[in-house]
Input
Amino acid sequence: MDPTTERMVVVAAGIVQYGTIAAGEFLTNPVYLDELAKRAPRGWKKKNLQAVIGTNVINGNSGPPRILATYFW
Output
C-alpha cells in the first residue's frame, strides 16, 4: 500500500514483450491469482509481495504464465 494514497501499488514488467504479456495475463486472470493466494502466508493481503512469473515462448507467442518464486514481507 502506498502510504500517501492509501492505495495498492502494482508494478508489472517483463523481459521483452513476452514476459510483459505473461505478467499482464497473470494479473488479470483469477485462476492465476488464486494460485498465488494458495502459496501465500496468513495475513498476506496486508503484506508486500513479489512474484517472479515465467512463460515459454511458443511459435512467437507467450505461453501461460507460471509462478517461479514468491516473496512476502
